[in-house]
C-alpha cells in the first residue's frame, strides 16, 4: 500500500492567482504532488491547452459525466460548468501521489464533505479586492464576465472561515513560501 499522501483543496475568488501560484509551487517542489485537472464547459482562454490547463468539455459531455457519477464535485460557476473528475484524485493518491485541487468555493465544500479529516483546505485571496478586477482585466476577460466574477467573489470572500488556512497572494514568491509552510508538513508522515 502506498504511503498516505495529502489531498489539498485550494480555492479563492477569480483573479486571486490560484493557478499561477500552484503551477509555480509545483515547479519548485520535490514532493510527489500533482494538480488535479478540472473540467469545464467554458471556452479556452488564449494559451490554454486541453488536458493540461483544464479538460475542456462540451455541455453534453459534462452532463453525461455528472449522470454517470464520474464527477467528484461539480457546479455551475458564473455561466459555465466546472468540476473535478473522480479519476483526477483517488487513483493518484492510491499510487502515492498527492493531489492539489484548484477549485471554486462551492466545489471545495463538496470535497471537504467527501473527505472529512483527509484533506487540507486553503483559501487564496488578495490584500485588496480591487486587485481582482485588475487581474481579470489583465487576463482579457470581457466586462460582463468581470462583473459576474466580481459578484461571485463577494460571496466567496464571505466563506473564508470555512478553510483550514488563508494565504494572501500579494506577490508570487511570498505566496509560494506561505503555501510551502502549510504543505510541507503534510508529506512528513
Largest sheet: 5 strands, parallel
Strand order of the largest sheet: 2-7-1-8-9
> Outline, from the CA principal axes?
globular
Instruction: Please report the distance between the alpha carbons of the first and last residues.
Output: 14 Å
Strand content: 15-25%
How much is the average pLDDT? 91
Number of strands: 9
What is the alpha-carbon Rg in Å? 16 Å
Order of helices and strands: EHEEEHEEHEHEHHEH
Layout of secondary structure:
Layout: E1 7-11, H1 18-28, E2 33-36, E3 39-40, E4 55-56, H2 59-67, E5 71-77, E6 80-85, H3 90-94, E7 98-102, H4 105-114, E8 120-125, H5 130-138, H6 143-157, E9 165-168, H7 172-183
Parallel strand pairs: 1-7, 1-8, 2-7, 3-4, 8-9
Antiparallel strand pairs: 3-6, 5-6
Describe the structure.
With 189 residues, this protein is α/β, with parallel strands linked by helices. Helix content is 38%, strand content 22%. The strands form two sheets. The protein has a five-stranded parallel sheet with strand order 2-7-1-8-9, with helices on both faces. Strands 4-3-6-5 form a four-stranded mixed sheet. The model has no long low-confidence stretch (mean pLDDT 91).
